[in-house]
Amino acid sequence: SGPFLSVRDLYVQFATEDGVVKAVDGLSFDLERGRTLGIVGESGSGKSVTNLAVLGLHNPRNTTIRGEIVLDGQELTGASERTLERLRGRKMAMIFQDSLTALSPYYTVGRQIAEPYMKHMGASRKAARERAIEMLARVGIPQPRLRVDDFPHQFSGGMRQRAMIAMALVCDPALVIADEPTTALDVTVQAQILDLLKDLQRETGTAIVIITHDLGVVANTADDVMVMYAGRCVERGTVREILKSPEHPYSWGLLASIPRLSAPVDLPLSPIPGAPPSLLNPPSGCPFHPRCAFAEEVGGGRCATVRPGIPEDERRGFACHLGRERKREIFTGQIQPR
Ligand code: SF4
Ligand code: MG
Hints:
InterPro entries: AAA+_ATPase, ABC_Ni/Peptide_Import, ABC_transporter-like_ATP-bd, ABC_transporter-like_CS, Oligopep_ABC_C, P-loop_NTPase. One of its GO terms (cellular component) is plasma membrane. Belongs to the ABC transporter superfamily. This is Peptide/nickel transport system ATP-binding protein. 36% of the residues lie in helices and 21% in strands. It has 338 residues and is of the alpha/beta class. It has a domain at 100-172. The chain has a 7-stranded mixed beta sheet, sandwiched between helices. The protein has a 4-stranded antiparallel beta sheet with strand order 2-1-4-5, covered by helices on one side. It binds iron/sulfur cluster and magnesium ion (MG). The site of magnesium ion has 3 residues, from loops. Magnesium ion (MG) binds at residues 43, 48, 179.
């Protein structure tokens, strides 16, 4: 059998008043059970959209999706809303950035955790309430039996985030997608939440996708990393490969923005200038070329005209025209960034 989650040649486009936004522009990746994939990029890189497409949460009226998304042998592109609805919650779940939007202020925390358990697992109200208490305990809420009837506003931010994780995991989903799950939290709580996800993964073998702009988050949680830019994957590999020997200039820039990571000393580290490109009108050739300090070094104007790619089946790869020799010159300081 194939990988647990397999995405092949995915394109996601939105029709807007100004034209067509190419949010995801030919993306392929695999994810196995029990592993964590970190998808990293600036906002507007397509990382969230990719996962909304996997979950079938895009708006079909203005969105076109092409390509293949296969979850545990089941094709999701073109699946009916009924099929997707059944899969969401039971087989796949999403943890959002902001617990205030994911949790309703009008219902108790316990009821919101119990609801999907009744709906998807056919549990009785009583059994689902017991399950909610068990889940609150599992995510580290003290005295869960006393807190189960609290409303979200009675919880602290960190507790609400935990409650949201409890809600996402109540049916033991095989795939969990966490979109910037810790950005709104202080550093200590962030670390606790990420540890919690890893613990749950060890217990249940869940496959996890963590979407983040922060390579630091990925360093502590992911097995594999996919770096996205302008709706494409520009580099992928194991977390160790990406952190210790990144090959793409955009990855170098991302690493430069997290001084707390010990980056390889010989990298030409400097933060990325400018802003991400418009996806209405993406740059020709390499989408990073307007911001890349090394585009001139490639020669022949290739960076602006020829789109670099990663062979679909290559586990480790990067989309950049810079040759090995040029890179060596950059690393040894013979070439300075523009
Ligand atoms: Fe920079 Fe050219 Fe490589 Fe793109 S292909 S990252 S512009 S050197
Ligand atoms: Mg996002």
